[in-house]
Every structure is written in structure tokens, then in C-alpha cells.
Amino acid sequence: MRIPHLDTNYRNPIRETKIDTGFVRGVPGGNQICTVFKGIPFAKPPVGELRFRRPQPAEPWEGVRECFDFGPAAVQFDRSYEVGAKNLYPTSYPISEDCLYINVWTPAEKTTDKLPVFFWTHGGGNFGGFGHELENDGEGFAKRGVILVTYNYRLNAFGFLAHPELSAENEDGKSGNWALYDAIAALEWTRRNIEAFGGDPDNITIGGQSAGCMMTMCLAVSPLTRGKYAKVIYHSGVRCGDDPYFPKTTFKQAEQMGIEFMKAHGCSSIEELRALSADEIMKETDFEKNMPGLGFRQFPDGVSLMDTTGMEILHGNLDDVPMLSCVCADEGQREPGKRQIISAGSKAFCENQLKLGRKPVYAFRFSRMMPGDDEGAWHTSELFYMFETISRTWRRMTGYDFELQTRMADYWANFIKTGDPNGSGLPVWTPYTEESKMTMDLGTMDQMIPVE
């Protein structure tokens, strides 16, 4: 019996391969049609003197490294008790400053297969999350001939802290955005090594959700990554122009935040701050309670980012490649009984691409009222369907939900392969154009609907 969506060329996936730091061996995926390489270091552990520094190349190893277990998540507060987080996180998971690990799900049989690659950045507000959350799994994409790559990046102050002393350590005189440099390093690692897993370094789709969407926007507009991706997928977070929710933080303001952070933790030098334990760094202070927005996050430093992502996108400072933008109907501030068709940010993004004469965006609304509570199509809920992992939730899913996840996984795999989500047996998904300002609804109407 043929496994649905399985390309019969990929029945004996690569189990062992050589990357630039040595040999790695993966573990068979649960569906037996892919291999999962878990916890491959893509940089040195950012600990000790490497805390608050840009990621350094990983050390090579002798012999074969068994990549059978995911690496620790970045240091973060325990969120397993939160109502929203319980949908995504296991009841317990290891955390560590030694967190810069990458994961690869590959169905490739040979290193010459040239399969398309989905480079995924997890969300979590820049203060939580990891690349192997419950919803993240590459077996659904592997069935469709796509390689999935996920990774961890530093969070909270570990991922973003700027300070004049730290700036003086770098030749360019800049500091902070460590998490963005982690993401850049992970993307560069993927480009260098993905052929060892049967992937195509020239057909990498970058994507992410929420804070991962913010990071994906950074990767899309950064001068350090321009021309290094083939397609982009934004989930719940794309912005265009000024953004009152995320006001611009200048480099000098970021350094001042670092000065105040250091004082709040009773330190007078970076040396003292590096000597603190991770728990002490994470200890909340009055300064942090008053931090605006999501607190620590990316900012224009003149090296990795030249301006805010919204302004860079507004001015077209990103590659003209196929793009897909997703929003959930019930995320954010929602009036009772009123569901959003498309977020203001996503609509502005679609309109701006048209104004610039760029490729039109494939817009999407996820509207499935998730079984089990009255929260509706909440922020992040679409990922279980996209990754085809709804069986991992505690919710009682219906036959419709299983059909929906198959359609979504098909659309996304098609887009990752070709830049067009359409395929055999799927309702036609047209891009957002001047003549047809439409978005695809999946979860309620399952068809194209107008954007008002």
C-alpha cells in the first residue's frame, strides 16, 4: 500500500552523513520514511566568555556524532503551566545557555537529491520557545519530499543585550542582536551543510511564526542574508512601515537599556555580569517590569539591521521572491463575535508589495475554531495543521481537522517547492493582486474570500 504523499524515490533516507564539523548519524522518524538528525551544534556553546558575543563556529569532532536527542532549549522561564503554552510545550524540557543546536528531518536517499528546504524559526516572544516544540515536526513535510530545519536561538537578555563595553569588544563597535546573529549562523550552517542531507542550498524557504516571524523578517531584510533565501513564509507578525506596538529602539537606546540592566543586577562591569549564573541573569528587576512591548528584541544596529524591519520592508529592502503571509482569525485583540479577515500588518504588506511592483503575496487566514475550548483560532493554532501534528494536542480532533491538516501541509509543501501553493486536488489559491484582493480561508469556508 502506498503511503499518501510519499514520493517513492525516498524510501531509504540517509542515516549517516558528513557535515563540515564531522560525521553525524540520525534516528529514523516515526513514519520510517525520513531520518531526524537532532541536536547538531551549529556554533560553540555561548557560555562563559562567549556570553553576550556573536556565535562562534562549532568545534569539529572525531568519529560519528549520534544525533539522537534534541539539544536543550535556551534559558527561559518555565511556561508549562500557562494555558497557551500547554498547547505547545511538554510538561518539562531541559534548558541551558548551551542551546545553539539545529535539527534536520530529511527524506532524501542520496546527497545529490536536491530537495527543497524549509528553514523554520520558532516563536515565543523572544523570551520562550525552542525548535522542537510539540507542534514542530518534519515528518509531514518529509512525506511530501521537503526537508525541514529547525533551530534554537538565545532569548531574553542572553539574546539581545547591548552595552558600551560589549560594543568595544567588536571591531564594528556594535553589540546586541545576539539572537539574530544566531539565526544568521543557523541559516549559513544550513546553506553550507544541507547538501549532506540531500537538500538544495539554492531552494531554501525561510519562515517563522510570531517572534519567529519577526526573526524571519530580520533575515529577509538583513544585508548579511540578502540573496541567501528563495522564498519566505510569514506567520502572525509581518509588518510594513512604522509600528506603534514595536516602537523603534535605536542602537544608543539599546546600549542604555544594557547599562540599566547591568545596574539592576548589581554589576559594575561586563566581567561581573558574565560571572553571574543564568538564574541570576534571569532574575526579574524593577527595570524589566517597566520595559515596553516585549522587552528585549531586535533593533537596528547598522550591521545586522539597518532600520526597523517594517521600514525596510516598506522601502523594498528585501529580495523579490515568492512570499506567503498567514494570520489567525482570533489572535490579538478581538471584539466578541468579530473575526479578523486579515491583520492590518499583513494587508499593508500585501499592498506594499503591489506598490513596489514586486511578486504578489499569497495571503491566508486560518479560521478553524479549535475543539476543546472557546478560544477560537488562537495565535499559533495553525501550526499543528501546517506541520500535520494535530494528534499531539490534548484536543479531541474531528475527521475534518485531519482533512484540514492534509490540505494545509499540501499547500505549504507546494509553496516551499515551487513558490506556488496550488496543486492537484486543492482549491485554487490566487495571490493578492490589484484585480483580486483576496485571501485564502482555511478552517471555515475553505475558499478564497475578499479582503475588505
Structure commentary:
The protein has 452 residues and is an alpha/beta fold. It has one domain: Rossmann fold, CATH 3.40.50. It contains 13 helices and 14 strands. It has helices spanning 139-142, 156-160, 164-168, 178-193, 211-221, 251-264, 270-275, 278-282, 286-289, 309-314, 344-355, 382-386, 399-418, and strands at residues 16-19, 22-25, 27-28, 35-41, 64-66, 101-106, 115-121, 147-151, 199-209, 231-235, 323-328, 362-366, 438-442, 447-450. The strands form 2 sheets. The protein has an 11-stranded mixed beta sheet, sandwiched between helices. The longest helix is centred in the last third of the chain and has 20 residues, at 399-418. It is globular and about 60 Å long. 51% of the residues are buried. Mean pLDDT is 92; it is low at 6-10.
Strand order, sheet with most strands: 3-4-6-8-7-9-10-11-12-13-14
In the CATH scheme, what's the topology name?
Rossmann fold
Strand portion? 15-25%
| CATH superfamily membership | Alpha/Beta hydrolase fold, catalytic domain
Per the principal axes of the C-alpha atoms, what is the gross shape? globular
For the sheet with most strands, the description reads:
11 strands, mixed
Tell me the series of helices and strands, N- to C-terminal. Answer: EEEEEEEHEHHHEHEHHHHHEHEHHEE
Compute the number of structural domains. Answer: 1
Given the structure, what is the number of helices? Answer: 13
- The N- and C-terminal alpha carbons lie at a distance of 46 Å
User: Quick check: average pLDDT?
Assistant: 92
Low-confidence regions: 6-10
What's the level 1 CATH class?
Alpha Beta
Number of E strands = 14
Helix content: 25-40%
In CATH, the architecture is: 3-Layer(aba) Sandwich
**Rg measurement, Å:** 21 Å
